[in-house]
Amino acid sequence: EYLSNDKYFRQVLIHDPDIFPMFPEKDPFEEINRNSILMIKNILDQGIKEKVFRKVDTGRVSEIIFLIYKMFIIRTYIKNETDFMQQLFAETVELVIHGLYIESST
Length: 106
Description:
Blueprint: H1 7-15, H2 30-49, H3 58-78, H4 82-98
Helix pairs in contact: 2-3, 3-4
């Protein structure tokens, strides 16, 4: 949310959306983004180890979470849809954390 108040940052993103490319073969910040994905992976690995998260392919899931993050950055700050995206973000977190299935009580 703090980024939405930074007009300079928004202008940089609007004029150069390739800062957050969706495809890594032309990623000018590959190392930074790779480290961000690794940070997510480490959190997932720790959560699995502590039996907070179910077992998943943490490499792939961390990539998916990072792609969702980039989509939110692009949509929120380049297209300036802050209010809508805040609601969408909350619902996305809910979906990722709880999924679509109703937990069975049996």
